[in-house]
Design goal:
Layout (H helix, E strand, L loop, with lengths): L3 E3 L36 H10 L3 H22 L6 E7 L5 E6 L6 H6 L2 H4 L2 E5 L4 H15 L15 E5 L4 E6 L2 H8 L10 E5 L3 E2 L19 E2 L10 E2 L3 E4 L4 E6 L7 E5 L2 E5 L2 E6 L4 E6 L8 E4 L12 E8 L10 E6 L3 E12 L9 E5 L15 E4 L6 E12 L9 E5 L1 H6 L2 E3 L4
Parallel strand pairs: 1-8, 3-4, 6-7, 18-23
Antiparallel strand pairs: 1-23, 2-3, 5-6, 9-10, 11-12, 11-25, 12-16, 13-14, 15-16, 17-18, 19-20, 19-22, 20-21, 21-24, 22-23, 23-24
């Protein structure tokens, strides 16, 4: 496993001049409603075509079905069925929606309740552990490895990470060194020793990447680059989605909590200093802050640029956010994309919808990999918007806020981690700004 870092960075946007001294100036958004779908292919469809060698028609059909799979996942994850274990999308060798339960009950009634659009793809799988049993076993293993003590730290600061592979039905413990692997292996409970494997390698770790200077007409919206110093060579983060905060519904923007303030935005030939969070939470389950943008404009835009010449992509691009998908609706195999200050727009698929980035007592995070681009994320993307395309190439739904990813890693197996977007609105009195 390659080293992972919470994302900030040093290089300018790929579409700016080659000089490292040039600042990435935030552009003015177009009027809402003007970015109509021109009938071109969206990047999520291209992703499936590239990775699985599908026709455009088949890839588009699979992307269109993701929304219905998400609804089924939300229903199952919020149900009181103690035997439910997991749901995931499988893209090869054939397209399937695998729903697993920890018993042998007849599921004919369940299958009849599934939306007809996806019913023929659904397959029932029997597994050893239900979701609740799996979580309980992971916590017991984590405590055993930690000397009998609960791991209770901020996200990214756990000494090791315990995960579970529902396909192989084994636990994987990620540790930073071989020495720790040898030490912890002796602490594995004897009843599950044959079901535990260790992987040594660098773990995800934090690393850095009322406003001043605001002028009439200034903007702040998702996808813009922000810097900890008024210097294009300084570390950087990315503005995430636009929100309304508090009972007064004050316009504001999201980014990662580990992006230290003040942060600076370069807009229309001047610097704007973002000094204060309206709300901030960084713990085992959260890594976000809501930034005060004062009188600046914001809207339901995601600004994105693309570094690798996707032919159907207008560079740069603007997407309108029409809503959000809850954590419960996000499943393994779902194609997701993000806009970051360092790598621009990249796409991959969820490979773990129950990733214990802050330990097993924290709420799960989302792990993404399997990109066809050169790297799914790099330092500088922290705070960036993760989203899905519900069938249009111009309108997207929010799914998360970027927090971590590979440093020195690249290609198909590169990894990104994001916090589910609905966690923001459960923790803070805020609402997502969306287009109708």
């Amino acid at each position: 496993m390659k080293k992972l870092a919470i994302f900030t960075g040093v290089a300018a946007f790929a579409f700016t001049a080659a000089s490292a001294q040039q600042v990435a100036e935030a552009p003015t958004p177009p009027p809402l409603g003007t970015q109509t779908d021109d009938g071109g292919r969206n990047p999520a469809v291209t992703y499936l075509m590239q990775v699985y060698k599908l026709s455009e028609t088949e890839a588009a059909e699979r992307i269109a079905l993701q929304d219905e799979v998400g609804k089924l996942a939300e229903r199952l994850n919020n149900s009181d069925d103690p035997t439910f274990s997991d749901i995931e999308i499988q893209h090869e060798p054939t397209f399937k929606i695998i729903v697993s339960f920890a018993d042998k009950s007849d599921r004919k009634a369940f299958l009849q309740s599934v939306d007809p659009k996806i019913r023929r793809y659904v397959q029932i799988k029997q597994v050893k552990r239900s979701k609740s049993a799996r979580k309980g076993e992971m916590r017991r293993l984590e405590e055993s490895l930690n000397g009998g003590k609960r791991v209770d730290v901020r996200a990214g600061e756990a000494p090791f990470v315990v995960t579970y592979d529902n396909d192989e039905e084994i636990f994987t413990v990620y540790v930073p060194t071989n020495a720790m692997q040898e030490e912890l292996a002796a602490r594995v409970p004897s009843n599950i020793k044959s079901e535990v494997r260790f992987v040594a390698g660098a773990l995800p770790r934090p690393s850095q990447s009322g406003p001043e200077g605001v002028q009439p007409g200034d903007w702040a919206t998702a996808g813009y680059t922000i810097y900890p110093a008024k210097d294009p060579n300084s570390l950087r983060c990315t503005i995430g989605f636009s929100v309304r905060y508090g009972l007064a519904k004050k316009p504001a923007v999201l980014t990662s909590a580990h992006c230290n303030l003040p942060q600076h935005l370069y807009y229309n030939n001047h610097w704007i200093t973002l000094k204060s969070p309206l709300f901030k939470r960084w713990d085992s389950s959260h890594d976000f802050q809501i930034l005060d943008i004062g009188s600046m404009n914001t809207a339901s835009w995601v600004y994105a640029w693309e570094a690798e010449n996707i032919p159907e992509f207008t560079n740069p691009e603007w997407f309108e956010v029409t809503g959000m998908n809850s954590y419960a609706s996000q499943t393994e195999g779902t194609v997701v994309c993000k806009s970051g200050a360092k790598t621009g727009i990249t796409c991959g698929q969820i490979v773990d919808a129950d990733y214990p980035y802050g330990g097993t007592y924290g709420q799960p995070w989302i792990k993404v990999s399997k990109t066809y681009q050169s790297d799914i994320s790099q330092p500088g993307d922290s705070g960036g918007a993760w989203f899905v395309y519900p069938g249009s190439s111009q309108r997207v739904r929010a799914v998360g806020v970027h927090t971590a990813g590979p440093e020195g890693d690249a290609g198909f197996n590169s990894v990104a981690i994001y916090m589910p977007i609905d966690r923001v609105f459960k923790a803070a009195t805020a609402e997502l700004i969306t287009s109708p």
